[in-house]
Write a structure and sequence with these properties.
This is Sugar epimerase. By secondary structure, the chain is of the alpha/beta class. Helix content is 39%, strand content 24%. Helix 1 crosses helix 7.
Length: 216
Amino acid sequence: MKVLVVGANGQIGKQLVSLIQDSNTLEAKAMIRKQEQAEHFEKIGAETVLVDLEGEVEDIVKAADGVDAIVFTAGSGPKTGPDKTMMIDLDGAIKTIQAAEKADVKRFIMISSYDTTRKAIQEASESFAPYVVAKHYADEWLRSTDLDYTMIHPGALTNDKGTGKVKAANTVEPNEVPRDDIAEVIFACLENDSTIGKEFQVIGGSTPIREAIDAL
């Protein structure tokens, strides 16, 4: 299975591409925004494709040529304003979903935010609300499609070393989770078709990742 990783140069994306390239069953295609980002992926044998998420849907359709699954890990980041949040976390996500449909790539994994409900929007701080709104509507768009999607809602992301263990369920209490472990969760979902049509929250925990995903 070849997997297009959108946002491959992000921390989760980089780790996911490495996991895929180290596997015997999956192959990564890293979608990056700048040519200078390619060297890292070429060193580990991953194919790269240069696409700006603020560009056209057709650019992403071309990037999806020959792939069997798409993972959306892109994000505008905490240092950008609401404008970039809307362009990447909302418009970029929806364009990627549309591209999957046009390219006839059924399998789609979305890395969302911990809580994207209307209640979460209302309770979010003024600075955080645009991000929750963007994720809310991107999630709604994905739910309305016929794609074989899985939606992952991670807790507060950290750069701590992954433990290989998480807690995953429809709803879990707010807590942190290492980005390394979220990459492992994505990888496990790619290899487990029983996660199709499911969405779940995930935080650090005591259950081995594959066991936690199998139990969803």
